[in-house]
Amino acid sequence: MEFLEVQQALIEAIQRRNEKILIPAISMANGSGYKKRLTLLIKKAEETLEDLRCLGGFQHPIPDLNKPIIAELMNYVSPPLIVRDIMTATFLLLGETEEELKSWEFIRLLMRTTGRNSLLQRFQRFILTEVPTEVQTKAENMFKKFTEDEVRKTSAGAASFFVWIQKVMTKPDPSPVPTDGQKRKK
């Protein structure tokens, strides 16, 4: 295979964020004679794959994200604190600034955005490791004040976003590495 074909396959796999496309693209790149030239791209593809696995294959982050959910949230002129905090935490993770998110009107505008910057597109491009730690902490502090039941009782739409935040903020515990004296589990 030609270098450009292998490179393009990796780029497309990274952009599509699909495990079934990433695995063969990474294997193809690793098996090609261009592995050394593609090291950074292979690493990016492997990181993307790891992010997807941490999300449990959660490619479409909010399975029931649809117009009625967005409409419900946008209908709030002055949302309950729980809704506001969940949506603020969501958009903090997606890259908006805390200052901008003080305005509910701005949050409503973000929910209405279509095209490349739509919520769905932004969720599909989301990579937690690219979010600064301090932003992760702020978002986590906002959403951890509530339980899923509390959010669901207030707003089904906000509950969908709560579940997404919970899913992306839950980092899997690394498996302990057995010492020489311990037996490995099979």
Distance between the termini: 38 Å
How confident overall, as mean pLDDT? Answer: 82
The helix fraction, in percent, is: 55-70%
Tell me, what's the shape?
elongated
Main features:
186 residues, mainly alpha, 2 domains, disordered C terminus
Brief overview:
With 186 residues, this protein is mainly alpha-helical. The chain has helices at 3-16, 19-31, 39-54, 67-74, 81-93, 104-112, 119-125, 133-143, 148-154, 156-169.
Structure characterization notes:
- This protein is mostly helical.
- The chain has 2 domains: 3-54, no CATH class; 67-169, no CATH class.
- It is 60% helix and 0% strand.
- The chain has 10 helices and no strands.
- The chain is elongated and about 60 Å long.
- Mean pLDDT is 82; it is low at 172-186.
